[in-house]
Specification:
Blueprint (H helix, E strand, L loop, with lengths): L8 E4 L11 E7 L3 E8 L4 E9 L6 H14 L9 E6 L4 E5 L8 H6 L8 E8 L4 E8 H10 L4 E4 H11 L9 E7 L2 E8 L2 E9 L3 H14 L8 E6 L6 H9 L2 E4 L7 E2 L12 H5 L5
Parallel strand pairs: 2-5, 4-15, 5-9, 10-13, 13-14
Antiparallel strand pairs: 1-4, 2-3, 3-4, 6-8, 7-8, 10-11, 11-12
């Protein structure tokens, strides 16, 4: 499958050309369905660019490597020496292990319980202090090697780590109310359930139709006794207001709100064109510890 280098979306602030790249960071989000990146001015806390590439169909690991190779070669914005580079990788080979059960020497064992064996991959973990757990996942060696060739000091985390930490870093989890956080992108639904400020669930589901989306969401909520008439749903990802999925949510859930970033960073005037919830995990990536 040939993947074009023409971005699906591209928002670049004119002030980016005036910035010293010694004070600018890059956040890069990778999956087999899409690639996106944002550039942040560390001094002012401004987002200066968001660029996204959506693939016409799901790629292979080798296809993603080929695309990234060409992207790093021809995308001038990625040829700079950034002060910091954050990379999230999104796949389904991830599992959360509570700290009290975690053993660094058992990483491959943890994944065997939940996923198929992934050949030619490094198994790593992220510590998520907000939920006192480790996120264990795999990164294809070819992708990690390519990133390190271009950005030696790049920091890797899993996309679900960025989602979980983004929810807590934005102080959405306050009070004793039940809350469900939904992130949607490329027919994938990610769900976080919090009850009484305590983390209960992260899970992801693939769906084809909006009815499948609703089924998976209501199923997850039912497992943890989250009442659709009283539980707030906070929505992130590529879902437009009054879209079919949003309209379906409003039909079955009483309180549905789009996420808003609360940290001290700003979208420049140009980037204000983008709904704030669209790139929630990407915009929060540089805030992950």
């Amino acid at each position: 499958m040939a993947i074009t280098l023409n971005p699906t979306e591209s928002y670049i602030d004119s002030s980016l050309n005036e910035q010293s790249f010694s004070s600018i960071s890059l956040s890069l989000q990778l999956s087999l369905n899409d690639v996106s990146f944002t550039i942040i001015d560390n001094n002012q806390g401004n987002y200066l660019a968001i660029v996204a590439y959506n693939f016409p169909e799901k790629s292979s690991v080798s296809g993603l490597v080929d695309f990234l190779t060409q992207l790093f070669l021809y995308q001038d914005l990625l040829k700079k020496e950034f002060a910091q580079v954050f990379v999230s990788y999104k796949n389904n080979t991830a599992t959360l292990i509570p700290t009290e059960l975690f053993d660094e020497n058992q990483l491959s064992t943890y994944l065997k319980f939940t996923t198929e064996d992934v050949p030619d991959a490094n198994i790593v973990s992220d510590f998520i202090k907000e939920i006192d757990a480790y996120n264990v996942y795999s990164i294809p060696q070819s992708i990690e090697k390519l990133i390190k060739m271009n950005f030696v000091d790049a920091k890797f985390i899993h996309n679900s780590t960025a989602f979980i930490q983004g929810v807590f870093n934005n102080k959405f989890v306050v009070g004793n109310a039940d809350k469900v956080f939904v992130n949607i992108n490329n027919n994938e639904l990610e769900v976080i359930i919090v009850k009484g400020s305590k983390f209960y669930l992260y899970n992801s589901f693939q769906f084809k139709m909006k009815e499948d989306f609703l089924y998976y969401l209501l199923f997850a909520m039912k497992q943890f006794n989250c009442d659709p008439t009283s539980t707030e749903i906070i929505v992130m990802g590529k879902i437009a207001e009054q879209s079919p999925i949003h309209s379906l949510l409003l039909k079955y859930i009483v309180e549905v709100n789009f996420a808003k970033n609360t940290f001290e960073s700003n979208l420049t005037t140009l980037l204000n064109e983008i709904p704030e919830h669209y790139y929630f995990t990407l915009l929060n990536l540089s805030k992950c510890e």
